[in-house]
Amino acid sequence: MTYLTSAEVSEAMADIGPVEAIRRNRVQVTTTPGRIRAALRSATSRLQCDHLVQIATIDTGHEFELFYLLTGAHRTVLSIRTLLPRDRPKIRSVHDLLPPAGIYERQIHDLLGITFDGHPNLGRIILNEDWPEGEFPLRKDWKMDPAKSYGGAPEEVR
Questions:
Q1: Based on C-alpha coordinates, what's the Rg of the chain?
Q2: Measured between alpha carbons, how far is 146 from 123 in angstroms, rounded to an integer?
Q3: What's the rounded Cα separation, in Å, for the pair 47 and 130?
Q4: CA–CA distances in Å: residue 144 to residues 140, 149, 152
Q5: So what CATH class is 6-89?
Q6: Residue range 137-155: average pLDDT?
Q7: What's the pLDDT tens digit per position in 70-121?
Q8: Domain boundaries, given as residue ranges, for the chain
């Protein structure tokens, strides 16, 4: 099997950001939020990454890390990583470039509160419709407020 090399990824992503070989079949590119779309265009056109595996998010407690994981017939997992500030967790949507990204963006918005500008519908997808606005249960600093209802059975039934 012929995997992409970090040299091939570096050449295709020369203006995007630093490239790191994580292991034999995994290469990571780190870039700024403003370069994500360019990175994804290079990945799909120059590196033949035609499959979005997922968009993963980590709350480090200081910032959010977004990882766009792609692969192709070469079976290399290309991870495009960017950092978002906790006080302004916002990035442009990529659903128009990679339609499957739309569902991941909705999940991330629902659970972590990251806004994907340009997404046509960031409505609830995982949490109950009556979940309190502005509360994101996968954030490290989130605490359940016992005075609020988080959906499910009405209080008189509990």
A1: 18
A2: 25
A3: 43
A4: 12, 9, 14
A5: alpha beta
A6: 84
A7: 999 999 999 999 999 999 999 999 999 999 999 999 999 999 999 999 999 9
A8: 6-89
